């Protein structure tokens, strides 16, 4: 029986082994491991790829969400609008920086924040919207940009799952003041350890963001801000420069596999939607089924591994419930009904650079026999 992994980081990185070894030697020989030429080079390359004015490498995607909120210097606590269905990091970033997450439900066709539901959540304390291009599908940017303009709100894009995804010929990460990226190893552009960074589109934030990652300092031992230690390693930057050259082909491969699922999976499964005005890069190929857990077990019995993104809706995580209780804030269950439905029915199918078209046709064949 064919064994299909959900993902396999060894096989994912194997094609780059020789180049990685060479770049490891280069970094070792340079004797310079933090904030050097490799980070500078990657920052320039990724900014050019995105067509963003600047890019700043950081230690993680979480930091890439937090540092903009700090640099924007809102009074604490301000309200930041966030989708009710996202990875916990987006919400933690708002809370960690002293602000209040205000949840907005997703559009069930896109799984992204529903722009029609944002306006009713805006108050005099709202300062920003933090959107997430979830699973690799761009949010509806025209609607969101119009709302930001109308209500004078800042926009931070969580692009941890959307490297290379475009909305109307413009890269995700280049719409808001800042686009936040994660280079966690499983991402479409993944390092061999932790990493992240910010596309900086509002250059008035650039100097403070750059200092914040390095103890608030531009000049060694001169500290202008209470900063952080969030620096992308030289070695990770070197690996990322190698991988970046393949990002379009990695995304293209995933899109080809996704197209097979979209064409051949039977109609029992709720499939992701695609449209002409944006490109979905399928970081995650998310389907939904009301008997999701049964389907997951069935696939496992057929040696097909899947994942769930995510098993617990953020508003029901102990951490979030405790935070709201501690600050005597109300978590309204009506704010996460749809998010919960997604979390209870979502299943992520294998759709990675390690999979062949034959692998996916095999998954489809097995899935189509599920009753
Ligand atoms: C949507 C989203 N935001 C933020 C992050 C945080 O990235 P990191 O793990 O690099 O801190 C992730 C990582 O999985 C993510 O999926």
Identify the notable features of this structure and list them briefly.
371 residues; binds pyridoxal-5'-phosphate; Aspartate Aminotransferase, domain 2; 13 strands; alpha/beta; Aspartate Aminotransferase, domain 1
Task: Report what the structure shows.
The strands form 4 sheets. Strands 1-9-8-5-4-2-3 form a 7-stranded mixed beta sheet, sandwiched between helices. The chain folds into 2 domains: 9-104 and 112-244, Aspartate Aminotransferase, domain 2; 247-367, Aspartate Aminotransferase, domain 1. It contains 13 helices and 13 strands. It is globular, with a radius of gyration of 21 Å. The mean pLDDT is 98. The longest helix has 18 residues, at 247-264. With 371 residues, the protein is of the alpha/beta class.
Task: Please specify the SSE layout and strand pairing.
Elements: H1 9-13, H2 17-30, H3 37-50, E1 54-58, H4 61-72, E2 79-83, H5 88-96, E3 100-104, E4 126-132, H6 141-151, E5 154-158, E6 166-167, E7 170-171, E8 178-182, E9 196-200, H7 206-212, E10 217-219, E11 222-223, H8 234-244, H9 247-264, E12 285-288, H10 292-301, H11 318-326, H12 337-345, E13 346-349, H13 357-367
Parallel strand pairs: 2-3, 2-4, 4-5, 5-8
Antiparallel strand pairs: 1-9, 6-7, 8-9, 10-11, 12-13
Helix pairs in contact: 2-8, 3-8, 4-5, 9-13
């Amino acid at each position: 029986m064919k064994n299909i992994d959900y993902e396999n980081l060894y096989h994912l990185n194997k094609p780059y082994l020789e180049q990685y070894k060479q770049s490891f030697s280069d970094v070792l020989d340079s004797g310079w491991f933090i904030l050097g030429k490799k980070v500078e080079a990657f920052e320039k390359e990724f900014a050019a790829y995105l067509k963003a004015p600047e890019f700043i490498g950081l230690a993680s995607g979480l930091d890439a969400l937090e540092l903009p909120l700090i640099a924007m210097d809102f009074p604490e606590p301000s309200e930041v609008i966030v989708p009710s269905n996202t990875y916990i990091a987006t919400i933690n970033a708002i809370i960690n920086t002293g602000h209040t997450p205000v949840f907005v439900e997703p559009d069930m066709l896109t799984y992204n924040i529903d722009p029609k539901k944002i306006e009713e959540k805006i108050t005099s304390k709202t300062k920003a919207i933090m959107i997430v291009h979830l699973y690799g599908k761009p949010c509806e940017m025209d609607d969101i940009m119009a709302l930001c303009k109308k209500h004078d709100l800042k926009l931070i894009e969580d692009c941890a799952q959307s490297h290379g995804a475009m909305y109307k010929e413009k890269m995700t990460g280049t719409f808001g003041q800042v686009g936040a990226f994660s280079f966690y190893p499983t991402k479409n552009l993944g390092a061999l350890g932790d990493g992240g960074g910010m596309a900086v589109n509002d250059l008035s934030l650039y100097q403070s963001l750059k200092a914040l990652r390095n103890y608030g300092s531009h000049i060694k031992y001169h500290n202008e801000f209470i900063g952080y230690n969030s620096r992308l390693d030289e070695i990770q930057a070197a690996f990322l420069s190698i991988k970046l050259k393949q990002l379009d082909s990695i995304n293209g491969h995933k899109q080809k596999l996704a197209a097979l699922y979209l064409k051949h999976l039977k109609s029992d499964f709720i499939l992701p939607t695609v449209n002409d005005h944006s490109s979905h890069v399928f970081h995650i190929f998310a389907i939904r089924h009301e008997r999701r857990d049964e389907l997951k077990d069935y696939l496992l019995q057929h040696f097909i591994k899947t994942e769930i993104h995510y098993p617990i809706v953020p508003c029901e995580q102990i951490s979030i419930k405790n935070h709201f209780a501690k600050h005597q804030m109300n978590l309204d269950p009506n704010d996460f009904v749809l998010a919960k439905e997604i979390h209870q029915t979502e299943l992520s199918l294998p759709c990675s650079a390690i999979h062949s078209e034959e692998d996916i046709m095999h998954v489809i064949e097995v899935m189509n026999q599920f009753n």
